[in-house]
Design brief:
With 451 residues, this protein is mostly helical. It has two domains: 1-198, no CATH class; 318-450, 3-Layer(aba) Sandwich (Rossmann fold). 65% of the residues lie in helices and 5% in strands. Strands 3-2-1-4-5 form a five-stranded parallel beta sheet, with helices on both faces. Strand 4 (419-422), helix 12 (426-434) and strand 5 (438-440) form a beta-alpha-beta unit. It is flat and about 130 Å long. The two termini are 58 Å apart.
């Protein structure tokens, strides 16, 4: 046992408190470290699952049907509050734990959380000391984790420094090589400039001779150029005349096409009015002859048979599911976590929601059906999901289960509309079928989403 372990001598076994904690023991409850609160919630959550319903406090009854882990996660503050305020509940928790898991809460063990939890539940006089020891143990663990993280960062920075030093050496070598190449290119450019200077002088002399020759030729060229310009002007005038004639012809063709389109549009309008008139006459004649009235259909006059009781049916294979998805008015309601935890339980909940909503959006775009997916919203800050166009994403409010929201969605739909609920929860399946909705198991829907 470590030196900072201040737990007292082992008691012979858990002793149930005889009443509410005295004021001397109330202070440790108000300053419990988070790990100790979590341990107390786990103990109480496990005990609530094995208690008779009448012994479960009223605030905890709505969590009684949860699994112990889910109960501890969602009802942790309520469980700790009941342990602090209700002596009968503490007594019941201690009795259940002593019967089903004897020895796990004895204060003599080296687990400081168990020792502090046992002291709080039994109102042990050393409660404050044990709670403080558990808090110090938690703080020491946090400091060790921070130290390890700092050492890891130092190692990473050391590696990065060595990498940067290597890159700096390589950059210096490259700069040195570039300087050498620059000097060689400079000497080569000087030689080229010298050679180009000689060529420039030769070209200047040649240019002077050519200017003299051009001056002699210019006098004859100017006369021929004036004649060419006059001929060009005459050709331009003829081209302008041809262009004006072509423009008039194009305008005449456009006017003829516009007149043809207007005549066709007029014919289409007159034909539409004629069809509307004929349709109105047919409807009026149908009303006058009382055709298509609300009388019974021939199949409704057959005796010896009756309409069966309403109720949904299971859709247990891909063929039946595809037949349902072919209904244009179908509303598909999906129990979100029931489907996502079946298909990809290893992903975080946020990634499960994003992946399922994206697959449902693709299914809705292919089939044209209405799709609604419902997730438990307790302790979830819902951000808009990407890729969910065409899918209605709902989160249940605090204290409301997604299963109840699914039932409410089914109840809100009018009788006769085809409804399909995707879930493997037996209670939800039974309740929505009574309301006329069809059900499909989560695994079958996932096969279609992955297909």
């Amino acid at each position: 046992m470590s030196p900072d372990d201040t737990s007292g001598p082992e008691p012979s076994g858990p002793v149930a408190p005889s009443g509410d904690p005295e004021p001397a023991h109330a202070e440790p409850w108000a300053r419990l470290p988070d790990p100790l609160r979590g341990r107390l919630a786990e103990i109480a959550a496990a005990a609530v699952g094995g208690m008779p319903a009448v012994e479960v406090p009223q605030p905890l009854r709505r969590f009684a049907r949860f699994t112990p882990a889910k109960r501890a996660r969602l009802a942790g503050p309520v469980l700790c509050a009941e342990l602090q305020d209700s002596a009968p509940f503490r007594t019941a928790v201690l009795a259940w734990w002593s019967e089903h898991r004897p020895g796990e809460l004895e204060t003599g063990v080296d687990d400081r959380l168990n020792a502090a939890a046992a002291a709080l539940l039994t109102a042990d006089p050393s409660t404050a000391r044990l709670v403080a020891a558990a808090a110090r143990h938690g703080e020491l663990g946090e400091l060790r984790a921070e130290r390890d993280e700092a050492l890891s960062r130092v190692d990473k920075l050391t590696v990065e420094t060595e990498r940067l030093r290597g890159e700096l050496t390589e950059a210096r070598d490259q700069v040195r090589t570039a300087a050498q190449h620059r000097d060689a290119e400079y000497q080569q450019l000087r030689r080229r400039v010298s050679e180009q200077g000689g060529r420039l002088r030769t070209a200047t002399d040649t240019c002077a001779e050519l200017e003299h020759t051009v001056a002699q030729l210019r006098s004859g060229v100017d006369q021929r150029l004036d004649e060419a310009l006059a001929e060009r002007d005459r050709e331009r005038d003829r081209a302008d005349q041809e262009h004006r004639r072509a423009g008039r012809a194009a305008r005449e063709v456009a006017a003829a096409r516009q007149a043809t389109r207007e005549a066709r549009q007029g014919d289409e309008v007159r034909l539409g009015l004629l069809l509307d008139t004929l349709g109105g006459a047919v409807n009026g004649l149908r009303r006058e002859l009382s055709l298509g009235g609300g009388g019974p259909r021939p199949a409704e006059t057959v005796t010896g048979a009756h309409v069966g009781a309403p109720g949904g049916t299971p859709v247990d294979d891909l063929a039946a599911l595809d037949a349902m998805l072919g209904l244009s008015a179908l509303h598909l309601v999906v129990d979100g976590y029931n489907v996502s935890k079946t298909g990809y339980p290893d992903l975080p909940l946020a990634d499960q929601r994003t992946r399922l909503a994206g697959q449902l959006a693709a299914l809705g775009s292919r089939t044209g059906i209405e799709v609604t997916v419902v997730f438990d919203g307790a302790a979830v800050v819902a951000a808009p999901l990407r890729g969910t166009r065409g899918v209605r994403v709902l989160f249940s409010e605090a204290g409301v289960l997604a299963d109840d929201v699914v039932r409410d969605l089914v109840a809100a739909e009018p009788r006769g509309r085809p409804l399909l609920v995707a879930t493997s929860d037996r209670e939800v399946v039974t309740s929505v079928r009574r309301r006329g909705a069809h059900t499909v198991p989560s695994a079958v829907l996932l096969q279609r989403l992955h297909g």
